[in-house]
C-alpha cells in the first residue's frame, strides 16, 4: 500500500454567487407629504396647546376675580356685622340708661306720693307738724349740746323747751312720748354736774395749786437758808434717796416742770374727747414727773392722792336714757 501512489481528489466546483436583492428607492414626493403632515400635526398641537393655556389662564383669572369679589363681600359683611354689633351695644347702653332713669322716675314718684300722703294726713299737717319738727330740732340740739360741748344747763333748757312745744300736740298717740320726755328730763336734773366738765375743773384746780405752791425742799439748796455744811460742800456732794432722784438744779427742774405740764395738757385733751384710758395714762405719767419735782414728804403723798382721785373720775355720761325721746319721736313719725 505504501507503493500505491496517492490519487488526486476530484476537483470541486465553486458555488455560484447568490444574487442580492435590490432596494427600491422611495419617491421624494412621499417624504414631502410626510413632512407636510408632520408640520400640520405640530402646528395643530401647538395651536391646541396655546388655546388650552389661554383657556386655563382665563379660568384662573376668573377664579381669582371671583375670590377677590367673595373676599370683598366677606369683608363688607364683617364690617356690617361690627356696625350692627356696635349699634346693638349702643342700644343696650341706651336701654340701660333709660331703665335707670325710669327707675329713678318711679322712685321719685313714690317719694312724691309719700310726701303727698303725709301732707294729706290730718295728723301730720299744719301746726301739729310744725310742733313735731320743732320738738325734734330741740331734742337734737339738747343731745348734741350735752355730748359735744358738755353744756348740761344748755341741754336742760333745750329739753324744757321741747317739753313745752310737745304739750301743744293734742294727738293721744304722743302721750307716751311726753312720758318718756319727762323721765329723760328727770334723769338730766338728777345728773348734777357733767362728768367731763367736773374732771376738767378739778384738773385745772390741781394745775393752779401746783403753780402757786412751790414743792417743799425746792429752796433747800439756797445759800441763805441751807445749813453750813450744805453751803460748804453742796457744790461737791449731793445727798439724795437711792430709790429715786429729785431734780434740784435749775435745768433739771425746768425740764421736769415742762414734762409735768405736757402730761397735764395731754390729760386735759383726753378728757375733752372723753378718752378715759388716755386720761388715766397721762395722769400716771404726771405722777412720775411729780416724784421728780417733790421730795418724799406728806405734801407729795397728798398731791399723788389727788392725782389718783382725778384718774378715778368718770368722763362719760351715766345716762342710759339719753336720746330715747328723740328715737321714739322719729319712730312715731316714720310709722305709716
UniProtKB/TrEMBL annotation:
One GO biological-process annotation of the entry reads: methylation
Highest taxon listed in the record's lineage? Bacteria
Q: What is this protein called?
A: Uroporphyrin-3 C-methyltransferase
Q: Which ranges does the record mark as transmembrane?
A: 28-46
From the broadest rank down, the organism's phylogenetic lineage runs:
Bacteria, Pseudomonadati, Pseudomonadota, Gammaproteobacteria, Lysobacterales
Q: Which InterPro entries match?
A: HemX (IPR007470)
For molecular function, the Gene Ontology terms on record are: methyltransferase activity
Could you list this entry's UniProt keywords, alphabetically sorted: Membrane, Methyltransferase, Transferase, Transmembrane, Transmembrane helix
Amino acid at each position: 500500500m505504501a507503493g500505491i501512489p496517492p490519487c488526486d481528489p476530484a476537483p470541486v466546483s465553486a458555488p455560484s454567487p447568490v444574487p442580492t436583492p435590490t432596494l427600491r428607492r422611495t419617491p421624494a414626493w412621499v417624504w414631502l407629504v410626510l413632512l407636510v403632515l408632520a408640520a400640520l400635526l405640530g402646528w395643530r398641537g401647538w395651536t391646541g396647546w396655546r388655546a388650552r393655556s389661554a383657556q386655563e389662564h382665563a379660568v384662573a383669572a376668573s377664579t381669582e376675580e371671583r375670590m377677590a369679589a367673595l373676599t370683598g363681600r366677606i369683608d363688607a359683611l364683617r364690617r356690617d356685622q361690627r356696625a350692627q354689633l356696635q349699634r346693638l351695644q349702643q342700644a343696650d347702653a341706651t336701654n340701660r340708661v333709660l331703665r335707670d332713669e325710669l327707675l329713678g322716675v318711679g322712685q321719685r314718684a313714690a317719694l312724691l306720693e309719700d310726701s303727698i300722703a303725709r301732707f294729706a294726713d290730718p295728723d301730720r299737717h299744719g301746726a301739729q307738724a310744725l310742733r313735731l319738727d320743732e320738738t325734734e330740732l330741740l331734742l337734737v340740739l339738747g343731745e348734741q349740746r350735752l355730748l359735744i360741748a358738755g353744756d348740761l344747763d344748755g341741754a336742760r333748757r333745750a329739753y324744757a323747751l321741747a317739753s313745752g312745744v310737745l304739750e301743744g300736740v293734742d294727738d293721744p298717740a304722743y302721750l307716751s312720748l311726753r312720758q318718756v320726755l319727762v323721765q329723760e328730763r328727770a334723769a338730766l336734773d338728777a345728773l348734777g354736774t357733767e362728768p367731763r366738765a367736773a374732771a376738767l375743773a378739778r384738773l385745772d384746780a390741781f394745775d393752779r395749786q401746783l403753780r402757786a405752791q412751790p414743792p417743799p425742799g425746792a429752796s433747800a439748796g439756797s445759800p441763805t437758808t441751807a445749813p453750813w455744811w450744805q453751803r460748804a460742800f453742796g457744790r461737791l456732794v449731793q445727798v439724795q434717796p437711792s430709790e429715786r432722784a429729785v431734780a434740784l438744779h435749775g435745768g433739771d427742774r425746768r425740764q421736769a416742770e415742762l414734762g409735768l405740764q405736757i402730761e397735764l395738757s395731754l390729760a386735759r385733751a383726753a378728757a375733752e374727747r372723753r378718752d378715759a384710758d388716755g386720761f388715766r395714762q397721762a395722769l400716771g405719767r404726771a405722777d412720775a414727773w411729780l416724784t421728780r419735782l417733790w421730795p418724799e414728804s406728806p405734801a407729795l403723798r397728798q398731791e399723788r392722792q389727788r392725782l389718783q382721785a382725778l384718774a378715778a373720775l368718770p368722763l362719760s355720761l351715766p345716762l342710759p336714757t339719753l336720746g330715747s325721746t328723740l328715737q321714739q319721736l322719729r319712730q312715731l313719725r316714720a310709722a305709716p
